[in-house]
Structures are given as C-alpha cells and as structure tokens.
Amino acid sequence: MAPLPGAELVQRPLQLYRYLLRCCQQLPTKGIQEHYKHAVRQSFRVHSDDDNPERIQQIIKRAIEDADWIMNKYKKQN
C-alpha cells in the first residue's frame, strides 16, 4: 500500500521529492510535518551527486517504502 496515490508513477528524483513533500502534508501535526520535510531535504542534498540510474531507482524504491511505513505509523496512532 502506497502512502499516497501516484507512488507507482515516481521515476525521477524531482518527482520523488515532490511526492515525499506531499506525503509530509498528510502527517498529523505541524511539528511532525516539519521534521520529515527537513529529513527529505537533507536526504536529497546527500544524494544530489548520485548519477547511477540503478542506484537512483533503489533510492526511489526505498524512499517510497519508508514513506509508506511512516504514514502507516501515524495512521495507527490516530
């Protein structure tokens, strides 16, 4: 189960970035949203020099899985 519709359409880093920021908007409080937005930005800075297409696809897949886990975590708490 993907956190938001459209996860299967994410193919490029910019699409992933936008997708993850939209996921952050769904989180319950402003503080939690800001925390994860910061984490998304930091991760993109760290990986900005990756140019291996296979590695980029691995990162995208893992980021979507992590977003799914986070969204489910906060969904269960409410």
TrEMBL record:
Q: Which InterPro entries match?
A: Complex1_LYR_dom, Complex1_LYR_LYRM9, Complex_I_LYR
Q: List, for all copies, the residue spans of the domain called Complex 1 LYR protein.
A: 11-68
Top-rank taxon of the source lineage equals Eukaryota
Signal peptide from the UniProt entry: none
CDD domains linked to this entry: Complex1_LYR_LYRM9
**Family the entry assigns:** Belongs to the complex I LYR family. LYRM9 subfamily.
**Which protein are we looking at?**
LYR motif-containing protein 9
Gene source species:
Ceratotherium simum simum
